[in-house]
Each structure stands twice: as structure tokens, then as C-alpha cells.
Amino acid sequence: MQKILNYINGSYVAPKSNEWIDNYNPSNGEIYGQIPNSSAEDVEAAYQAAKAAFPSWSNTTLDERSRILSKIADLIAENIADLAYAESLDNGKPLSLATQIDIPRATSNFKFFSQAITQFSSEAHESIGHNAMNFTLRQSIGVVGCISPWNLPLYLFTWKIAPALATGNTVVAKPSEVTPMTAYLLGEICTKAGLPKGVLNIVHGLGHTTGQAITEHPNIKAISFTGGTATGAHIARTAAPMFKKLSLELGGKNPNIIFADCDYDEMLNVTVRSSFANQGQICLCGSRIFVERSIYDKFKTDFVARVKALKVGNPFDETTKIGALVSKPHLEKVKSYIDIAKEEGGTVLCGGNEVVVEGSENGYYLEPTVIEVQTDQCRVNQEEIFGPIVTMMPFDSEEEVLAMANGVRYGLSATLWTNNLNRTMNMAKKLEAGIVWVNTWLMRDLRTPFGGMKNSGVGREGGMEALRFFTEPKNICIKYK
Ligand SMILES: NC(=O)C1=CN([C@@H]2O[C@H](COP(=O)(O)OP(=O)(O)OC[C@H]3O[C@@H](n4cnc5c(N)ncnc54)[C@H](O)[C@@H]3O)[C@@H](O)[C@H]2O)C=CC1
Ligand SMILES: O=C(O)/C=C/C=C(\O)C(=O)O
User: What residues does the Aldehyde dehydrogenase domain cover (predicted)?
Assistant: First the structure.
């Protein structure tokens, strides 16, 4: 059984307590490895390594930082087969998805920020008439913490680490304890790429112990977190009185609004994907589908037929479209919403059952499920399920659908399907979401601000927003004669 190790000061090390946590393979429910159950002592060791590495790394030239980050990107790309296999084994996602989306995006994250840092600049303000000149420095913060979730493991881990390193910070990072494997492999890649020891430290362990030790560490000055809204609120309660910088990317309950004048076939293809990609375990999935009444019945028939055709199966089978959910507790949580929906008067149009996959009988498989709801106020329409379940209901007017779309406590993303330009502009401006996709979904340009409103988070990542988050602005005002 493979034991993975913490990556501290450029070396792989066991946790000081020598305590371990079992790691499960979601595709068959078996324990296939163990990970460190790290304590505050391990986090302190990681912090000390990061602190020692900071003076040199923050003074390393942009060209050199850029070169090393670019090399990490290249090595991720060279190791795509191993990394995709590890991601799929750890998470249950189809190998095809890990190969086509997750690992290439990890490469892009490093490549993007290796280039972005060479384009980053700060402002100058001349105080005309006062003989004074202001210029703003954007200085590295110091040691920063990056905490990431299990749904897009390497994709989101690197989305935080790459800008943190590019801006000259040193990092104490914790991947999800549910999917630690690709973060573990990244350590070796960083060493090979020539990242100096201590610049990136990866500590494995549970959220309420290892994660908590990072967020409450008095000298880790900024925390970038992606995960559930309840955890985000807890982290904010810990970090706010310590006046830490916080970037919180949290949950979503995103509307997918379909008007009759859309390009129907394109909409149908993308809606299947936006509903069930990664087993519905992406915070951006369009989990609430609202369809204009004139095409509701046709959409219902076509969509349900398409969803029924999605093959649920072992992640390593290349015909699989829906793999395993990430863990047994998560499967139980997601399934509980099917009962809640029925109790609330919803109709299960397809799916709703666990799937027993031949040869992988104890895996965590669930049929993709479509639930027709009577009201947007029911729990399945209001709470983040984060699994292969979508709701659908008809609407009659722009005003009505806008009220329903905005009528949740989340505000991450929204998708709009229409060819009416005026409607597009008017609705996009009124939708309470950090990201609005029109006639597409999850089209990502890494320069754009990424994040949510309301309970979906605080702050924005991506592009220059991330570089600004990971730096401290300092204004210098010079008076001259
Ligand atoms: N990106 C997203 O929007 C995600 C949303 N979720 C939602 O959250 C629900 C709960 O899933 P979990 O696995 O429990 O996610 P989580 O939000 O608890 O875990 C995300 C990361 O935070 C860490 N963490 C947990 N407690 C912490 C603490 N007190 N201090 C510091 N770090 C901590 C975890 O170890 C993990 O690395 C899911 O059912 C889903 O609805 C989960 C993962 C990603
Ligand atoms: O940056 C992206 O493209 C996607 C981000 C997705 C999440 O943050 C998530 O699902 O948690």
C-alpha cells in the first residue's frame, strides 16, 4: 500500500506523529493508500521552511521565477499520463476527463502565471501642483496559505499556487485529504524544475486540524481557499480577527436559463455537459435549469433522453461519461437530496438510483438524475448538492426567471441561452453572479476575474486579480523641490 509524504523544504517527509489517514479509491471503495495525518507541528515545520526561503525567492528576478514556473508547466505536460491516472484513481472522475481537462489546465495555470508576472505593473500618481510623486510598490506578502478541494484536485491546487509563487511569496499548501495524490506528485516535479527548497511546502491532512493550523497560524498572512461555503465561513471567522488577506471561492447553485430563441442543438449539447461534467461536482455546474414554457416539453423529452444515454461506469473505461462520486459520505449526502425532492413533491424524470458497476461493485456510482420541481423555493433548488442532480422547471417571462435565478443565497455563475442581444445585455447586468456565460459554459480565459457574489465567496482570482491578491500594495510619496 502506497504511503504518500509531506513535501517540506524540498524533501518528502513523514508526519511527525507518524499518524496516517486511509485513502480510498472511489471506483471500487477500497483503501489503496495512506496519507499523513499532519498536525500543527508539521504545519510549523512547513512554515519555517517557507519563512527561510522567502528572502531569496522574493528577490529572485522575474525572468528566473518565470523560467522555473514555465518548467513546472512543461513537466506537468510531460507527465500527463501518470498525473491523469493518479487523479482519476483518487477522485473517481473519468480518465478521459482528467487527461483532457484537469491536467492540461494545471499546465496552463503554471504557464499562464509564468507569463503574467512578467506583464504585472503598478501605478504612479503625480500630485500636480504639490511637487510630489506617488508610486505604488506591489510587494510579496511573505508566507501564504493555499487550501484546495477534491473536485478538481490538481487544477485548483495549481490555480492558487502558481500566482502565489509568481508574485514571490513562499507557500504552505494543503490539498484535500480526499484527493491528495497529484499534489503529492507535484512536489517531485517542482524539485526537478529547480524550484528552490522551502518555496513550496505541501502538507497533507484533515481540514479541522491541518487546514485549521494553516488558517490560524499567526505568521501566514494570506489565505486562498476553495471549497464549501460552511468551511469558508469558518475560515473567515478564524482569519478575520487576525486581519489576514482572504480569497474565498465557495459554493454555487447556478441557474441555466434557456430561451426559445436559442440555438437549440448547441444548447442541448452544452446543457448535458454543464449539468453532469465531473459527476456534477464543479461549483460552476448549472444545477437549476429554467426553460421558457414554449419549448419546455420538447426540451424535457430531448434532455431526459440524452441524460439516460450517459454511460455510468468505471473511470478507466474509455466509454464512461459519468464516473464515481468522490467518497461514500459524499454519495450519501447527494442521494439524500433525491428523497428530499420526492418529499417536496418533485418528480424524478430520470436517474435517482445507485449504479452497481460490474467488477467495481463497491464503487460510489449514481445515475445522472433530473428532477422536475414545482417551485424554485424547494430545498433541492436552493441548496448546493454538488453531484449529478439537476432540477428543471418552466418560466413565462424574463422578470419571473430573473427573480428565480437570483432567489438563492449563492451567486457564482449563470448561463443564458438566447440570441436576443437586448435581452442578453439587460439580463446579464441584472443576474447576481460573478460570471455570466451566454450561449456557452465554462469557457475560460485565465485573464478574466473569477469568483462569486453573495455566499459564493469573497474576492476574485484569475489574471491580474490573483497577482494583486498575492501582493501588498505600498504607496510611496516623494516630495521634491
Ligand atoms: N469548489 C466548491 O465549490 C466546492 C464545494 N464543496 C461543497 O462543500 C461540501 C463539503 O465538502 P468538503 O469536502 O467537506 O469540502 P471542504 O470545504 O470542507 O474542503 C475543502 C478544503 O478545505 C479544507 N478544510 C476543511 N475544514 C477546514 C478548516 N477548518 N480550516 C481549513 N481548511 C479546512 C479541507 O481539508 C479541504 O482541503 C460539498 O458537499 C460541496 O457541497 C466541496 C468542494 C469544493
Ligand atoms: O477556474 C476554473 O476554471 C474552475 C474553477 C472551479 C471551481 O473553483 C470549483 O469547482 O470549485
Answer: 13-476
